[in-house]
Amino acid sequence: MYTTQNASQTYTVQSGDTLFIIAEKVYQDGNLWSLIYEANRGIIGNDPSQIQLGMVLVIPEPNQSGNPGTSKGNFQDMLEALGAFESGLPSGNPNQYTVENSLGFIGKYQFGEALLIDLGYYKADVFYGQPGVDKNYWRGTWTGKKGIDSKAKFQNSPDVQEFAIREAFALNWNRINDTLKGQGKSINEYLGQQKTFDDNGVSKTITITLSGILAGAHLRGPYGLADLLLKNEVSHDEFGTSILRYINEYGGYQVTPEDFLNPGS
């Protein structure tokens, strides 16, 4: 329940609430959950996931919080940061879209064969990710989706790549949701929570956010992300990059499912 008492906004914790869910309700942006936590740390304690049914929380005004670290930016800011790291070129450099790395991943967001097969741009019987295939060789065929009939055409089509990354996020989001539901869980149970993981013997505590989940799934796939949440299994890509690095570095952006679901609408 969300009420105003003596000019102060308050919220009574309901069943199933997390700070992320409450921030979605009151701010329409779950990534602002830390505003609520900082205003109620004395009540909640040192673990933001330990809110209790019936707690009455103060809801501060976002522009009065004095907390400069509540968000790193919007969805486009998150994409620019991710694309700069993936491509190895700074944001705004048009050559981001034509990059190809040593394993044959291409474009601003380093698309591989398997992902573009899932998204309907490409077809191949043999592709990277299968046993014995050591890189993306791009020996299959292109479907013509969005006018893309070759690897070169894809690499020289920035608009298509920007559309495709949104499709990829939507696909991963749905697969993560389906996997968690199969275990009686939901993404909302994790958003805004701090979790500690063992990453090759190093203890790392990170906050789970929507933008971090999207980035982590882009690095290690939706099932790698689901295994992290469900089993605390930390995975790494071919170059040794930890899924936790992506979840942490690209977490905290103001992102909602509406930013990437149904990109063609």
Automatic annotation (TrEMBL):
Instruction: Please name the SMART domains in this protein's record.
Output: LysM (SM00257)
- Superkingdom, natural source: Bacteria
The UniProt entry, under Gene3D superfamilies, shows: LysM domain
Q: Domain LysM: where?
A: 9-59
> What protein is this chain from?
LysM peptidoglycan-binding domain-containing protein
Q: What is the lineage of its organism?
A: Bacteria, Bacillati, Cyanobacteriota, Cyanophyceae, Nostocales
